Amino acid sequence: MKELSFDSVVIGGGAAGMAAALELEAAGKSVAVIEREERLGGILTQCVHNGFGLIEFNEELTGPEFAERFEEKLAGRPIQAFCGCTVLELDAAGIEKVVTCVSPKQGVMRLSCRVVILAMGCRERNRGNIRIPGSRPAGIFTAGLAQRLVNVEGYVPGKECVIIGSGDIGLIMARRMSWIGCKVHAVIEIMPYPSGLTRNIVQCLKDFGIPLYLSHLTTDIFGRDRVEGIEVAPIENGALMTEKAFKIPCDTVLLSVGLVPENELSRMAGVSINPMTNGPWVDSYLMTSLSGVFACGNVLHVHDLVDFVVEESRRAGRFAAAWLGGSRPVRELRVKAGSNVRYVAPSRVEPGRDNKLYLRSMIVKNDALLEVKQGGKLLRSQKKNHVQPSEMLTLELGEKELGAASGMPDASLEVSIQ
Amino acid sequence: MRQELTCITCPMGCHLTIERPDGGAEGEMAVTGNRCPRGAAYAREELLAPKRTVTATCRIHRGGAGASFETSGGPRRVPCRTRAPFPKERVNELLAAIYKLEVNLPVERGAVLIKDALGLGIDVVATRTLH
Prior knowledge:
The complex is a heterodimer of chains A (about 425) and B (about 130).
Chain A: E1 2-5, E2 8-11, H1 15-26, E3 31-34, E4 50-52, E5 61-62, H2 63-75, E6 80-82, E7 86-91, E8 97-103, E9 107-113, E10 115-118, E11 122-124, H3 127-130, E12 140-142, H4 143-153, E13 160-164, H5 168-179, E14 183-188, H6 198-205, E15 212-213, E16 216-222, E17 229-236, E18 239-240, E19 246-249, E20 252-255, E21 259-261, H7 264-269, E22 273-274, E23 279-280, E24 293-295, H8 306-324, E25 333-337, E26 341-345, E27 348-349, E28 355-361, E29 365-374, E30 377-387, E31 393-397, H9 399-405, E32 412-417
Parallel strand pairs in A: 1-9, 2-3, 2-10, 3-6, 10-24, 12-20, 13-14, 13-20, 14-15, 25-32
Antiparallel strand pairs in A: 4-5, 7-8, 8-9, 11-21, 16-17, 17-18, 17-19, 22-23, 25-27, 26-28, 28-31, 29-30, 29-32
Chain B: E1 2-6, E2 15-19, E3 30-32, H1 37-48, E4 51-52, E5 55-60, H2 66-71, E6 77-82, E7 86-87, H3 91-100, E8 102-103, E9 112-117, E10 122-126
Parallel strand pairs in B: 5-8
Antiparallel strand pairs in B: 1-2, 2-3, 4-7, 5-6, 6-10, 9-10
């Protein structure tokens, strides 16, 4: 068995892992990146549509272009990337951590290090997660799996589609399926508003005349060997109107019903998970409950834009490098999600410096107010032209706002939307 | 004539109302509901000459250097895009041309796959390097 030693090991070679690794290397730390696919890039490589990189590169790139630009940055640096390599076990309880992984090329390897960055990304919710009744024929795919089949493997998953859930991947797949010559009959959304971005509703549905059924629930899937259709019923004033149910014939169902951070490895290692994000609880250094284990990107909380993932992961890489150098948060304040806020990440800030937080609204509203309070005292109020659950919000808190707060006995902040 | 649009320039998604006299000139278009000037510009382009950036994938030529790649479980399609937004009404024609392509490996990101597509002055380029 091969035994290697690094200052830091990054688990996951997508946008988050690559961005964190670059920062660690730039700070003079030795870095290994472990990626289970044959090539770096993560989910970006199957997202062949455009819309990535407006913040990071100031231009609109496709997923593969974005990934490759980062891959090239890594290639020029002494960063050891192990591709086609799966992590089997993470032992992170002690000061010296051991990552056990396996690949066809290297066999079983044990990498020891003092810092681990979790950057495993997220995976899709499936039919079992949302309990759609009906039979279990062939032809039911998650939207991301269908995306991989079409864009990478070169297969067409079906001809007559219905998409359940109006998440962005589902909307993007509505356009992709239409562009490869399939017919998309409908998109079904349980909520009264779409969960994807407005521009995707316009570009991916309206352009193709695809109807969007809001406040509708899928009540049945028919078919013996292959999907033959689904049954849909409207929800009116909170009640399911079964007498108004109707059938939509189709041979393929794509599910776009949300993403879940992929934390099996984190859980195995003993990292505490925040039930609101399904990602680790992290402090102001983006460090998890295990000392020396950091988390960033979609494994921490699901982001809408890769540009945000990269920004957060750079911070994680810089904090991890500083931590290796002996730096620790001096004093932290807890940050709680208040009214109309689903979560805030990270859940701690350090008063003596600038802190960046990401949060998600629970409401749709124009001209909203984002407020930060401590024990009823308003520290910061920020106007937001428009808030909605599918658009992540950012909040910056510096010494100016937090200087006064640190002297107070109740050391917790509350972030709310009015 | 009165038309309604949702602006897709930014996440605000303004609901635009456009009034133009029947058979009137371009300049006579009146846009309301936009919260910034980009909304008016978007409405103008969307009604007069709508464009979309087209992204797709094309076949890898079998029997070439790509054959070994395919058996190794690597990608079986080369992703590509138009270098600039493409007139919307010609998108289906463009897609048909892209699907006819068979690309020889290796291909570099940015390599031109179709020069001056449909004679409209816009190139289709590869978006991923594959060896």
